[in-house]
Design brief:
The chain contains 5 helices and 9 strands. It is of the alpha+beta class. Strand 1 (34-42) and strand 2 form a beta hairpin. The model is unreliable at 9-29 (pLDDT under 50).
Length: 180
């Protein structure tokens, strides 16, 4: 009977440890200007390029065929100055994501960045490309490291993170509201 208090104390300790370790306290670096991007590019249709960024305050910033656009490199990295120049070409859509929703989805960025992406598969022609991306800012290199959440169109691929589909559905709903 002397062991009972020990097991009770151990159970309480493990419960507290489990609850506190499951919290996702992802804080954004101060310069983290962009979190998500929805982008459509189609060179077959007379070069169309439009989409939106979601910034760290939840603002949905749109662009439509900008003249001097800086695309991320092949590793999806883009430097801070190029992002600032891209943002200067954006227009505020009037949509602002609620803080709780932004915190919820941005909290999944680290996991998405670390997760594998399916192999690129050719699925069509002349449809263009829709990309759903998220970004992490690296304070040491002053670059944003992008990660594919999903790509659709002529080629498809998808991030294998559990939350990717939820984020894509959310970004699609924003894109749909902008097209109305």
């Amino acid at each position: 009977m002397k062991r009972y208090p020990f097991f009770k104390l151990l159970t309480v300790f493990l419960l507290v440890l489990t609850v506190t370790s499951c919290r996702k306290n992802y804080t954004l670096p101060e310069k983290h200007a962009i979190l998500f991007q929805y982008e459509y590019v189609n060179n077959a249709m007379g070069h169309r390029h439009n989409g939106f960024y979601i910034d760290n305050e939840g603002n949905v910033l749109t662009y439509n065929d900008p003249e001097e656009w800086h695309f991320p490199d092949e590793t999806l990295s883009i430097n801070y100055d190029h992002v600032a120049e891209n943002l200067a070409q954006c227009t505020h859509s009037g949509i602002k994501v609620q803080d709780e929703i932004l915190e919820k989805y941005s909290g999944h960025i680290p996991g998405i960045v670390l997760c594998k992406v399916t192999a690129e598969k050719n699925t069509g022609a002349d449809m263009g490309k829709i990309q759903y991306l998220c970004y992490q800012y690296d304070e040491h290199s002053h670059c944003y490291k992008g990660a594919v959440i999903k790509m659709e169109g002529d080629f498809t691929k998808e991030n294998l993170n559990f939350y990717s589909r939820k984020i894509v559905t959310w970004l699609k709903s924003i894109a749909d509201s902008l097209s109305k």
